[in-house]
Design brief:
Order of helices and strands: HHH
Number of helices: 3
Largest sheet: none
Structural class: mainly alpha
Distance between the termini: 38 Å
Length: 84
Amino acid sequence: MDVQTLLVFLIVGAVAGWLAGVIVKGHGFGLVGNIIVGIIGAFLAGWLLPTLGIAIGGGIVAAIIDALIGAVILLVIIGFIKRA
């Protein structure tokens, strides 16, 4: 993985984390926390979606959508854990 790929991955994760924080309200992680959740969600979606046979497509928009799905799933799971 070169520097450019890593930078794009981090930006996609940051955008997805911010959007997931807007979609899933009430979790209070703040901007930096949601960015970290977005990056972890991007890893989660990169593993989970192909395993389930879901392919959105290629390109930066599809990568953001994939990461957004993973980040929303992660925020919902974290919300359940925080309530317990």
